[in-house]
Specification:
mainly alpha; 7 helices; 74% helix; two-stranded antiparallel ribbon
Length: 178
C-alpha cells in the first residue's frame, strides 16, 4: 500500500469513527440503560465501505476516543467507566460488526442480499458479545437480557441494515473509488 492509499484510509477511518460518534448521539434512552441509537448504522457503513480492516479500525478509533474520555458514546458519555459498563460489550461489538460486514462486502457480490447478510451476521456477533457482557455485569438471566437488550432493538436494526445495504450500493455507484 502506497503512502497516498494509507493516508486516504486513515482519513476515511477517522471520518467513519466521527460518523459513529454522531450517530451514537441520535439516541432514545431506555429505562434499563441500553439506548436505541443509530450507531450500528454507521458501523455497518464503515464495514461495507471501508472493508474489514479499515472498517474495524474506524471502530477501534471510536472506542479509543471513548476510553480516553471523549464523549462519543450515547448521551455524550465517554471514559473507561462507560466503556466497561453494562453497554460496553455492545460498543466493543462494533469492532466485530464492522469486521464481519466488511468481510462480506469485500468477498461477496456487492448486492443488497449479501450486504444485508453481512450486516445481519455482524449485528448478531455484536449482540452476542454485548448480551454476554450485560449478563455478566448485571447478573441478568438470558431471557431477561434478551428482553431488555435485543428484542426491542430488532425492528430498528432491520431498518438500519436495509438502509446500510441500500446506501452502500448507492455510494458505490456515485463514489466508486471510496
Amino acid at each position: 500500500m502506497n503512502h497516498h492509499d494509507m493516508t486516504r484510509n486513515m482519513v476515511l477511518a477517522a471520518l467513519f469513527a466521527a460518523l459513529t460518534a454522531v450517530c451514537s448521539q441520535l439516541a432514545i434512552p431506555m429505562p434499563w440503560g441500553v439506548p436505541i441509537n443509530l450507531a450500528l448504522f454507521a458501523v455497518y457503513i464503515a464495514g461495507t465501505m471501508l472493508g474489514p480492516v479499515w472498517g474495524a479500525a474506524s471502530q477501534l478509533v471510536y472506542l479509543l476516543l471513548a476510553a480516553v474520555g471523549v464523549p462519543v458514546m450515547a448521551g455524550m458519555q465517554g471514559g473507561p467507566a462507560v466503556l466497561l459498563g453494562k453497554t460496553g460489550g455492545y460498543a466493543i461489538g462494533y469492532l466485530l460488526a464492522a469486521l464481519i460486514a466488511g468481510a462480506f462486502a469485500a468477498k461477496l457480490p456487492r448486492k443488497f442480499g449479501w450486504l444485508a447478510l453481512g450486516c445481519v451476521v455482524g449485528c448478531a456477533a455484536c449482540y452476542v458479545l454485548g448480551t454476554i457482557w450485560f449478563m455478566t455485569l448485571t447478573g441478568a438471566d438470558l431471557a431477561s437480557a434478551l428482553g431488555w437488550c435485543v428484542l426491542p432493538y430488532l425492528p430498528g436494526d432491520i431498518i438500519k441494515i436495509a438502509l446500510a445495504a441500500i446506501l452502500t450500493i448507492q455510494l458505490d455507484k456515485r463514489m466508486p473509488n471510496l
